[in-house]
Amino acid sequence: MAQSGEIMNLLVERIVPGGDGMGHHEGRTVFVPLAAPGDELAVRVVDVKPGYLRGEIKAILKPGPARIEPVCPLYGECGGCNLMHLSYEAQLEARLDLAKDAWRRSGGIENLDFDIVVSRSLGYRNRAQFHRARSGEVGYTRRSSSSVLGVGTCPILAAPLARWLREQADSPDRRALDRILAGKDRFVAFGYLERTFLEGQDRDITVEICGKSLRFDIGGFFQSNLDMVEKLVPAVCSGLSGARAADLYCGVGLFGTFLKDGFDHLNCVEQETRALGHACANVGKAASYAATSIEDWTKSSQARERFDYVVVDPPRAGLSAQVRSWLAASRAPLIGYVSCDPVSLARDAGILVAAGYAIESATVFDFYPQTSHVESYVRFRLD
Ligand SMILES: C[S@@+](CC[C@H](N)C(=O)[O-])C[C@H]1O[C@@H](n2cnc3c(N)ncnc32)[C@H](O)[C@@H]1O
Question: Which of 74, 87, 89, 332 is the most exposed place for a label (fewest CB within 10 A)?
Fold first, then answer.
């Protein structure tokens, strides 16, 4: 029986959800952060759990074929990225494997053929949440604790945001930031074109996506990788038409802004009233709006309409049982599902397939290089 502190040799088999490498030692599963597939490691056991062990790398005895030197000097210390020690190609493979594994385990669907839409691997992030240390330094939380790691460069940030962060480290105007943050110890920053917008100083931001303007609240939800949004929107919205569509979990109306061109009627539903206010302005008069939970909306008269296309873009937990039942019973000929968690997506997909839907396409949109986050879009067609 392995003990905490024990050193063992481990061959890393694959990356698992959360980004750890996984291997087996004397029949027990071992999870190790920052490990690469094919690595032969000396691992120190740090936690003994009933069915598995957690370890940390003591030494890399033989690196796996895809292991590379991370470009960030703070990698491993910082709580942000967790796959930067893999080449971009190996990261894609790992994220694709995470998606396929989730579909097999949670959806009961084997060998799904995913397309993959790649991102630039660095300099892609337009939105970041920063923390502020008591000392005034700006940074991220550490990987192994909630304390703040001061950060002067972050290679995944888009250019304006990276520049702003550099300036904070080189010549910090702490009083100015104190005034903006008014006592808050974390804040969102958004870099767009040449500017960086700061929560506390700026409120609404307008960006251009696929030729249309979208306005959102800096503190509310908006996608973090705008180049990828330009690729996602056509996949979700282009070439579709009909009498009625629904944009559920619509946020500020990202998809509705484009769907309104193809459909006679559009229903936008979102529970955050401020986000829905932006959706009204972004999508315009062509749609009906409901500021309510999707769960409550499914009980409304609007939800009894016949929809030609329903888009859902729920948070990580996916669809609640009530929304899943409504969607399966809607018999909408087309359903588009945008997901930031392959496990909840696969669970929901399994239920739609059992209800008679076929998977028309499944695509991983690589929104978050250097991390184990998997964003996907799946289109279902009623068989
Ligand atoms: C992943 S975001 C997607 C937003 C939008 N589709 C976009 O891409 O910008 C999920 C949205 O769902 C909203 N939301 C979460 N749970 C909800 C629920 N049960 N009912 C209605 N809206 C919900 C959140 O406020 C958030 O705006």
Answer: 89
